[in-house]
Amino acid sequence: GQNIDQPTEMTATEGAIVQINCTYQTSGFNGLFWYQQHAGEAPTFLSYNVLDGLEEKGRFSSFLSRSKGYSYLLLKELQMKDSASYLCAVSPTGANNLFFGTGTRLTVIP
Amino acid sequence: DSGVTQTPKHLITATGQRVTLRCSPRSGDLSVYWYQQSLDQGLQFLIQYYNGEERAKGNILERFSAQQFPDLHSELNLSSLELGDSALYFCASSVQGGLNEQFFGPGTRLTVL
């Protein structure tokens, strides 16, 4: 089975940097994904990691340690529009189906 | 706009009824995934189809079924509906069945009264 843990809520200040952690336990591992979801809207893809290390994509970076079952999403230069839920998801098999954590609700304050 | 379409946007029905949710994937995408998102719960993977064939199954109830048609659109059938089935149902698509980005549709909000 799969087990994914993320903090439920976080608050950060506009312009700052925030790190959202995700730990996972899975029977198989194909890759780890991060999605952003605004309330009532569809999740949108941010990044994915297959190998250990850091993937950078503009203001967003994602890190993976497969041996530790750990990932984080780093958001820089926070903007008010970054207030959303951030979902960590694991793909345990080659079929690419995703198992999501319950998400971290980030609130950016002025 | 992800290119994935879902209909209807909202659906209100009564317990015991049956409904069908429809999804059209992005042009060229062969794989379709269905997810359920209840209040205070994460996205739960239900089922995946690839080019018309069932590829992977998650926490899908026996009262639920899905299929993917030759034109690659997919339908999720929910029967004997219960209050607890009220949720947002998302469809996603990807190019292949392997590891790659999934594009999510806008979802269908199902309310069971």
Task: List descriptors.
heterodimer; A: mainly beta; six-stranded mixed sheet; five-stranded antiparallel sheet; 0% helix; B: 113 residues; mainly beta; seven-stranded mixed sheet; four-stranded antiparallel sheet; 51% strand
Structure overview:
The complex is a heterodimer of chains A (110) and B (113). Chain A is mainly beta and 110 residues long. In chain A, the strands form two sheets. In chain A, strands 2, 4, 5, 9, 10 and 11 form a six-stranded mixed beta sheet that branches. A five-stranded antiparallel beta sheet of chain A has the order 1-3-8-7-6, with no helix packed on it. In chain A, strand 4 and strand 5 form a beta hairpin. Chain B is an all-beta fold. Helices cover 0% and strands 51% of the residues of chain B. Chain B is built from no helices and eleven strands. In chain B, strands 2, 4, 5, 6, 9, 10 and 11 form a seven-stranded mixed beta sheet that branches. A four-stranded antiparallel beta sheet of chain B has the order 1-3-8-7, with no helix packed on it. In chain B, a hairpin with a 5-residue loop joins strand 7 and strand 8. The chains are: A mainly beta (110), B mainly beta (113).
Q: What's a quick, concise take on this entry?
A:
The complex is a heterodimer of chains A (110) and B (113). Chain A is mainly β.
Largest sheet of chain B: 7 strands, mixed
Name the helicity range of chain B.
under 10%
Tell me the strand percentage band of chain B.
over 45%
Largest sheet of chain A: 6 strands, mixed
Q: What's the quaternary structure here? A: heterodimer
Mean pLDDT of chain B: 93
Determine the structural class of chain B based on helices, strands and strand pairing: mainly beta
User: Count of helical segments of chain B?
Assistant: 0
Give average pLDDT of chain A, whole number.
Answer: 93
Helix content of chain A: under 10%
Overall morphology of chain A: globular
